[in-house]
Amino acid sequence: MPKLTVFSTNxxxxxxxxxxxxxxxxxxxxxxxxxxxxxxxxxxxAGIWRCEPGAWNIAFAPGSDEFFCVIxxxxxxxxxxxxxxxxxxxxxxxxxxxxxxxxxxxxxVRKHYVFVERNR
Length: 120
Known about the structure:
The protein has one domain: Sandwich (Jelly Rolls), CATH 2.60.120.
């Protein structure tokens, strides 16, 4: 029988990375991901993500969407057309497939995320 994935009682190994150099706009922020859940075919993952201040370009592939809810800190997402939105604790958003723009961490951020890839 499938079991619940309870984030508060699950301790996944963190994965650390930085934005790719060709995408960097400001700084070189350390990003840490705790993936709490991953489907067997890899089309859905959920967890907690933390990042230091910095900024980089983002480009979501067709069929790849992300839902997030900020736990702490502050971020700004700006589309390539210039539309910007800021998010702080309790704010939620979906970054849709095909979205291009920039992602800026204004204050060290922690967020819950759910990432869906429909093209698997």
